[in-house]
Batch of 2 targets.
Target 1
Amino acid sequence: MRHDADRHQLASAAVVVGTDGSATADAAVRWAAETAARKGRRLLIVHGLDLAVTRAALGSHLTMMSSVIEAMHRHGDHILAEARALACDIAPDHTVSTELSEANPAKSLIAHSESAHLVVIGATRSVGTLAHLGSTLLAVSAHGHGATVVVPSTGQPTHRSGPVVVGADGSPVGEAALGAAFAEASERNVELVTVHSWSDLTFGEYAGSSYLEIPIVDLEIAEHALLAERLAGWQEKYPDVPVTRKVSVAGPREQLAYWSKSAQLLVVGSRGRGGFRGLLLGSTSSWLAQHADCPVMVVHPN
């Protein structure tokens, strides 16, 4: 096992991806390998054994514990070897490292997110808005630092030729998402589509006034002005990025889900402007992380 200092040194500025050996995890490993190679960053593949659960389950069966843990280590090594081989097939000349951790998978990836360039995790299709609540996917997306990318297992190519799409809601959390989206669009040399929805009127403000204090006829004008104001500084910083603005009264979930069918990356903030205090992952972000048709980058403010 590596010490914490060694772990953080290895993960620093790297693309970190979690794997459990599933087809879903394989899709995440492929995307992470392609991304690490494109960005010129190291790739670290992590598998967590969650031995605390095993030790608690075995309890007083000490004679069994050693053999069970040894078998889990062997299985974990096998998972990592296969994931590394997959990554090397995608990026044969790239640096790929692996780490077998005894920690809970979510806690391990969250710890790595403190120093990683980004953390990547796979997502399976789920049923219902609250499906997989408390899973590794939502735990890492909610509590991770920086950016977490959730890669769907759709059977489609992990990288497309479509635009980068960002949900712009005018909040401080949304500002971090805008910065990440502009950087990704510039790096990929593609168009950035900014999607702004204003159906959550009771939570919104424009120029210090509640939306409900603004005449309905002026709301759309106000929303276009708000979006233009939010984008101005970023467009000056990234003049190479062509930007398309989309303002809609429809909810952000529906609009962003639609764009995810053609986008190569969807970027959202960890919470929207209507998010409750203390809720680390907004309902829109968590739903998209599980249901979008393209990789979703969930961005936490610095």
Note: Confidence is low (pLDDT under 50) at residues 1-11, 126-134, 272-281.
Target 2
Amino acid sequence: MPFLGQDWRSPGWSWMKTDNGWKRCDFYCNEFDSDTNFNVQLLNVNQDIYPPEKCESSVKKRKKEQFNNTTKSQYFFREKWIYIQKESTKQIHGYCTLGEAFNRLDFLSAIQDIRKFNYVVKLLQLIAKSQLTSLSGAAQKNYFNILEKIVQKVLEDHYNPRLVKELLEDLSSTLCILIREVGKSVLVGNINIWICRLETVLSWQQQLMNLQITQVHFNSGLTLCDLPLAMQNNIIYRFADAWDIINLGEVTPTLHLLSEDSYLWKQLCKYHFAEKMFCRHLIFSETGHVDWKLMFFTLQKFYPKREQYGDTLHFCRHCSILFWKDYQLALLFKDTGHPCTANDPGSCLIPVSPQHFIDLFRF
């Protein structure tokens, strides 16, 4: 019977043919090829002072420290999928953790895609609220590396700074609680590392507070205000976020009138909440009509809003694999994004919300 590893669906090691035979390719081989001569010289210098065993161990320790310090991304694996195992079986020993899934999935490339950006930010926000201490040390380092790239993207592209501000606010509150009640919490790493992380988050918050979005002038000179009134109204009805509507209404008096339309807020309430919730929180204005804008902000205090993302992670029920679906490959090569063995892979896929992603690893 052939040997089956922990994950028998994985492609295994990568091998390269050389003059001396086949050689296994490790992901960290190229990291230290430039230091080989330096390490050999160091061994030759110290072999008269220290025993060879101590010299070799010191070189190995230096390699490991250099790799940990220079690793700024999570490209440990090329695949953008992970097999979800919740219990041990005869074929597979162990289970998949949240930290392992966070390291294996390519979140660093996902934030560069505008369709996936809000999804990743929301996922990081949920992890910051309740699951930060459940991450391993490598996953926590990966978490803050991805967060650093997100802040840099917002500072450069000015894309959705309000959402990132909410993420940093929740993360700073969690870090303050963890540092203050360190005796009651389980922290992976030194307490000074967490203090430095909190200082970094506070610095990012200050940078976003001082962020000023300048107006971009195009050659044509055509702006949103130059469009016909009916087209402006049609655009504002496409918004699913209440604060985006309010901020847009502060641009011009015309947009302010469009943003205060009662029917607009009524449609927004119907989009995010069920109609049976309206009867419990009816709010009337002085004229006797329903104040739909005030009702929306009242309903969101009691019920969660409907989540909308351009692209999400997908879970294959047939293979129990969590992966990013590449729509371009799916259209060109009919590739689902993972090694699916089902006859109809499309019928086995279900989108995974950020909360569902965290629930998959609650055993």
Note: The first strand starts at residue 14 and ends at 18.
